[in-house]
Amino acid sequence: MSQPQIDPRALRDALSSFATGVTIVTTVDESGEPVGMTASSFNSVSMDPPLILWSVTKTALSAPIFQKADHFAVHVLAADQMALSNRFARSGEDKFKDVDYATDANGVPNIAGVLTRFDCKTWSVYEGGDHWIIVGEVQNMETQKGEGLVFSGGSYATAASIQPPNPESQTDEGPIEELLIYNLARAYVQVSRRFHASVEETGLSIAQWRTLASLHGGKARSVPDLVARTFVSPKKMNHLLSQMQEAGWLTVTGQNAEAVVKSTPKGEAQVEHLFELGAQQEAEALGSAGKSGQDRLIGLLRQVIENTNS
Q: Where does the pLDDT of residue 168 fall: very low under 50, low under 70, confident under 90, or very high at 90 and above?
């Protein structure tokens, strides 16, 4: 009897219910350049000898470097280091630019200000399906007290201890809760936090996602239209489009305000699954309001957009 096929997306969503800490793993390549990436696959293995492990997907650009590295460092991030996590989760940029770090005796970058750092010598590397499982022997460590950064359910969280509710601490709502602008902003921040983390997990920036999403389905748009849809300034938009065209995600024909932008099949593929993921997360946020509630809300928001479009 054949084994049932497991849907990769469903498996990833199921695994996301397991909360994990967030780390950045660093090493140095053969030319002496620092290398680093965000990883949540970190775990302890043994106390004697002191061993830890983490895993890296074989398709990652830095996978061959970590596979061959003699030494590496695992940095456990603090709750206020989401931006640092996002930086090292992206590909195709200088991740160490403006980051406070120093190299140790083995040339491995040690990032300052993290919650804990484990300096490791590679103990063994195992093949695990589409990942390399890297086991390291801890040779040195530094740690400080603080709250760790956690990733759970597709979004960042914190590992705060659970306290029983105190009825006396409840306060009445103030006039700010009656303002549309406040409720719009709060809803946006809370809903987008989880989705944006999922976007950045794919290696896309939020601006790149909004651009490709606006072009999805063969839409041709002008640069001013994309500026309005992505909240990117015209100057930065031109630079962004140039980068994305070089990556093969879109094409730009014409110049200045006459330019027309369209996505390529490669660009379409970059964001295809994010629409489904976004719809799933929105459905969870809407709860019992369901599809009809979503349609009413979108209709109201479109009316707000139209009335405030200047």
A: low
